[in-house]
Amino acid sequence: MPRVSADRSVALSEVITLHDNTVEAHLRRLCDTGRPGARLPSVRDLQREFRVSPITVQRAVRSLVMEGRAIARPGDGTFIAKPATAFSESLDHSWQTAVLGRAPQVQSGLDHLASAPTASTIALDNSFPDSGLQAHHLLTAAAIRSARRPESWDRCSPQGLPQLRAVFARELGDQFSADDVLVTPGTQAALDSIFRVLARPGDPVVLEDPCYPGAIIAARLSGLKPTPVATDEFGIVPDSLADVLAISGARLVVLQPRHSNPTGSVLSPERRTAVLAIAREFGCFIVEDDWVRDLDLDGPTGPPLIVDDPHGHVISLRSLSKSLAPGLRVAAVIARGPALARLTSARLAADFFVAPMMQATACEVLTSPGWHRHVGQLRTTLGQRRDLLCNTLLERAPSLQLRAPSGGVALWVKLPPAMSDSALAAECDRRGVRISPGSIYALTERSEPHVRIAFARSDPAMLVTAAERIADAIVAVER
Amino acid sequence: MPRVSADRSVALSEVITLHDNTVEAHLRRLCDTGRPGARLPSVRDLQREFRVSPITVQRAVRSLVMEGRAIARPGDGTFIAKPATAFSESLDHSWQTAVLGRAPQVQSGLDHLASAPTASTIALDNSFPDSGLQAHHLLTAAAIRSARRPESWDRCSPQGLPQLRAVFARELGDQFSADDVLVTPGTQAALDSIFRVLARPGDPVVLEDPCYPGAIIAARLSGLKPTPVATDEFGIVPDSLADVLAISGARLVVLQPRHSNPTGSVLSPERRTAVLAIAREFGCFIVEDDWVRDLDLDGPTGPPLIVDDPHGHVISLRSLSKSLAPGLRVAAVIARGPALARLTSARLAADFFVAPMMQATACEVLTSPGWHRHVGQLRTTLGQRRDLLCNTLLERAPSLQLRAPSGGVALWVKLPPAMSDSALAAECDRRGVRISPGSIYALTERSEPHVRIAFARSDPAMLVTAAERIADAIVAVER
Lengths: 479, 479
Description:
Two copies of one chain form a homodimer.
Chain A: H1 9-15, H2 23-33, H3 43-50, H4 54-66, E1 70-73, E2 77-80, H5 95-100, H6 111-114, E3 122-123, H7 136-147, H8 162-172, E4 181-184, H9 187-197, E5 204-209, H10 213-221, E6 225-232, E7 235-236, H11 238-248, E8 252-255, H12 269-282, E9 285-290, E10 314-318, E11 331-334, H13 338-351, H14 356-366, H15 370-396, E12 410-414, H16 421-430, E13 433-434, E14 436-437, E15 450-454, H17 460-478
Parallel strand pairs in A: 3-13, 5-6, 5-8, 8-9, 9-10
Antiparallel strand pairs in A: 1-2, 4-11, 6-7, 10-11, 12-15, 14-15
Helix pairs in contact in A: 2-4, 3-4, 7-14, 9-10, 9-13, 11-12, 15-17, 16-17
């Protein structure tokens, strides 16, 4: 291997077969074959040899320096660099720190999605019904039928399969059609798109206080300002809503009118009317997150809000995660007017379309004779679990205040005034039960501590064990 | 039904059984039972009757007005409103116009995704291999096995199934592990998340000129400024990249190093090295959109760029849409350092996780003995179609300039200098062939007109017919 020096560069260029007869190619070959640390030919030498301008030479040298093959020491010369670090050697990603800046606050309250619980832990922080309550027999049969159809694997319209959209429209009544429906990969994705294209970064978005943490992280992901509105046992407080809209100028309100997460409240008929009137008055969108549509445990609580809204203020989200299975990732947005078109464009830009295989499976299940039977059985089972958990907690932990919710998957439990919700949750954690401290749902400082305890993912024996451990944890925390 | 008047209001309040003895409830009942247009009691009367402050009365009146049950005529009084318009009557969504503002430009160049082609149209604007080239036998078998496993329907980690991530990591070699992989619902979704959380609204993002329109609409959805970098037949031009990074301050570069869409260029080995050196120099991310990984039609074109990058600059996107099926919606992001963690948080906030059923299906297919055979056959078929289309076009339309690309799914065809690409595409459309005008891929004014003609979605007979019609269209446009 020839030793490279400024003096020998002319000779070298004659020896090496020149595939690419440019200054840059010449220098690159010198770097490839020379000893690290050796001086490369001077700009003047190269200029003379190749009969080019100094700018051309400098550009070639800069190119090699940028590739890390050469090192420039101003005033001294240019030298062959050491070979690049081998891949397996220490990887240094520290440069990303400055480029990325501070991490956005997007991962709060949904930790149970990111971390799998250990087998011995009873996860009462999880809203999803357990595997035994998911409609596997319906899903498997529907998926097998769908998998055999070639169109399940081909592209599909960004709005979703027409037959599935028709099913979602029919659920709401004759005044809706498939054209009013957009299929999304879950209601979280729907919230995300709504926050992106029906508001602008920096805009306020009105959320119930307390509210579902997924709405908070979705709002933050789009740069919206979560803005709290007061709620009580009848849902969102209309006067508070009118006030917050007037003060904040918000044009987007998210609420869960039925079995709200976490409080379990159901919006009263008077308030439904009031909320719709306020939406008209202020010209705003009401996002109705109908997260447990199928889970009225004590009889019907009335139709979705959108059914009473002829003017396109309500955007209704229909979830299947709790009543069918969390892994399906198929939900519907029902909306009217330009808003739906804009949401459809946003979904196209964000991920093209929802896997038609999953859409076809959802469609098969929702139109199968077993669907209503499954939902009926699910309601009965969840009602029994709710009652069992309520009664065991009231018996074992009389200092708690709780009311059985008329639907949904969780209890909202008021703690004694001096008790810390996070201390109780931590103590339960140590005893092998995961519950959710109320503060992860809060947008304002709440004076009354709560915890949320889900009853959907545990069988009766586990619920009794969990209630006993929670009662023990309360005694331990009170001490 | 009693007629309502100010004079009779006291009497009425005694007659009606009071469920809710407040001013507001009283007024609501009057509105429900009274004649539209009738005057409601005055503030003074109500104040006297209920012994409350004028503020309380005014708040109650305002509430009814906001609900649309009463109409306030300042200086005159308050009157019962007409009942709300029935749902089926004319729906007026015009209020949305002002709230939403001008539509964002997000729907350009991907129209073929939103509109289904008619049966008689030959869609050479579509990159997806046709149904006959999709691996249906593998997909169906894999999906049926996956559908029977309960975990396919349950929740899953936002990063994706560990076994699938391990498969994607193994493709790249020993230096990668499942921890470096994030599963997304397609590479469009990956681009979207990258644009959202590795840049800030208003930031520039460097895109190849011309480039894939999906990258342009994803950039716009996140409020980034698409910033062009020059390309030629060897891919991105390193000097242009260094210049644009220096001028724009961009920290995000998207490129398709292999069989770039639309030009078909393959990044040369020298340029691979140069691009990585520039990434180090400027501290930026290179997003490698490896959109046709499996479709080297003339032998291997070298490993993905990320294999040569030990420092976490390259974020590699691995698509299955062209080689497996467009409907699967499963892709991988391979990245190192905090960037991957941030992308994972963003996916969690945006849609929780990809349907585990689809992930399990992808994993089964990629590890099945039939996968490599399928890809081999696909390459052979696409190579034959490419040659057939090239030869037929060169024969029938000698004014075109084209070079067979060494991979991918489409030809990039240079038109005679004076010909309009959109005029030719429109003329082809009239003759039942859809092709893509080059201008939908352009970020700058391009002096040389091109069209893109895909050969993946049509059988040989259709390709010959299409080539003949294109040749006829050229004659018609030239005339």
